[in-house]
Amino acid sequence: MAVRLARLAATGFVVVGLSAPAQANVSGADWSRTRTPRAVTAVEPPQASWEKAKRSMGLTAGGDYVVVVDSSGSMAQHRGQVKSALRALLSAVTDKDRAALVSFRAAPDRATAVFPLQRVTDPEAVVSRLPAESGGTDISGGFAAALSEVESSNEIRPAAVILVTDAQQTEHTATTARAWDAIRERIKRLRERQQEGRIHPLVRSAVLAWGGSDTTRPFPVGSSGCRASDSVAIAGCLFSREETQEVRPEDAANFLRRLPDEFGHRQFEAALAPDAAKVRAGDAVELKLGRPEMADDGFSARIQATFTSRTDALPLWVSDFTVSSSGLGGLRVKEARGRDHIELGAGKSGALVSTALEVTWDSVPQPWYALAPPSHDVELTIGYRLTSPYSRQMSRAEKPANRFEPKRHTQTASLGIPAAATWLAELAVLAALALLLMGRLFGLPSTLWIVQTGRPPLPLRVWWPATTHRPGSAAYKNLVVTTHWSPLRALRGAGPLNVTVWPNGTSGRGVVTTPRHPVELRRRGKREPLPGYPGSSISRGGLLRPAGRTRT
């Protein structure tokens, strides 16, 4: 026992690991013997290729690209550059993408779709449809014709509108606020249509501005209060500043060549934006601890830890586990060992993985006489590194808030450790010891037996150091027996049970009116004559019957 107590005082609370699911069915003391601890290292998930990421996200349907070309007279000098940029875009689109070419100039000419929205098989044939430049500029007419192309399609896809102009809006004074408002409302309905078709709303614009003289006097673009003085600002008022890119003429061909891939990343970003917000807020993973399964040794437990994904489309990896405790007595966890990572679903909210969290404690503050710890509550802080096979793709997000950066997270859970069976046995032993001590101090339990030949033995229970008995039996009429016992002397083993007998009783307030007879009962079973009652004796015996020497 002394060796065990010394071991209890020397060691501390330890979480030894996160075990593999294959050990989940091992029960009792066996699992504590079958552990194979190994050091935990940070594990990076293999990054998904761009094509695999798009397929897993369902972004393989392609996009719609509508090029709105300014065919006013001032654009004639840029015709060669415009054609080169168009060839770059039309050569980069895939067979799953669609493209349209819209030409616009000021009234009385109207904006016209010289190549309606469809798949492109011959880029040069599309470029050859570009009309000769003449007349003024009406950007609102070009945007209206571009939206008509997207709206007329039965397929619901993300859409990009590319405005190619020299930034001269010569007809803005004749364009009413109602016309601009109508364009903005059509863009809104297009996004709603995408949402209804389970397509992440994505309608963007890009402005290839070839210079020229910008509008000098700002004018309102609709009734929303947004004002513009050039074509880039006009597109920003209609689509939003965040969804509008300005491209310099010298970068136009390269930009349009990269546009399908860039547009795919924007779709990817839009689809994962809600999940990125959950990761940023620390709500992407939920941890629940199950009821502890105590081992037979009473110093270790297996707790089922369930990690649940709260992301809708983003697959997660949980790795690099650490566990600490601020529980009873400020105990701290020394080490964590076990699985190197957990994969949480393929981007499905509610996907969960359960694993076994093995907790061992060797020294919970407890009494010196305890053989095992009592029940108690411990606060466990589970730390883990959260990353994803899509981390590289999400690092290219346009908005910093939508980027995914592998990061450590912590979650606190309350763990209730139940008492071991040996602890309950200890309580029973302590209760028995307490009863024996009370008996030693207060005479519990003890019984006086009055025995007379030919009569049943008469028991008198002694519960306190000073007790008065009035048997009330006809054979012992008016008999009063009192006991006097010193607990302190009893602890030294020198205290007899002093008994005083009044054969004829006493007065009401304890004043002796008849002779009294003191009797000392030093040993159990020793019979002493009962004064005043010939043929009767008094002795100390058991609770249920007299001791052996006094039996009749």
* CA-atom Rg in angstroms: 47 Å
Span from first to last CA?
46 Å
How many distinct beta strands? 25
User: What average pLDDT do the residues reach?
Assistant: 75
Q: Tell me the β content.
A: 25-35%
Q: Specify the structural class.
A: alpha+beta
Question: Which terms would index this structure?
Answer:
single chain; 552 residues; alpha+beta; five-stranded antiparallel beta sheet; 28% strand; disordered N terminus
Short structural description:
This protein has 552 residues and is of the alpha+beta class.
Commentary on this structure:
By secondary structure, the chain is an alpha+beta fold. The protein contains 12 helices and 25 strands. Strand 11 (293-294) and strand 12 (300-309) form a beta hairpin. Helix 6 (139-151) packs parallel to helix 7. The chain is rod-shaped, with a radius of gyration of 47 Å.
Outline the fold blueprint.
Elements: H1 2-10, E1 13-19, H2 30-34, H3 50-57, E2 64-70, H4 79-92, E3 98-104, E4 112-118, H5 123-127, H6 139-151, E5 159-165, H7 177-196, E6 203-209, E7 219-220, E8 227-228, H8 231-239, E9 244-247, H9 252-281, E10 285-289, E11 293-294, E12 300-309, E13 316-325, E14 341-344, E15 352-361, E16 376-387, H10 391-394, E17 407-417, H11 421-442, E18 446-452, E19 458-462, E20 466-469, E21 480-484, H12 487-491, E22 497-502, E23 517-521, E24 528-529, E25 536-541
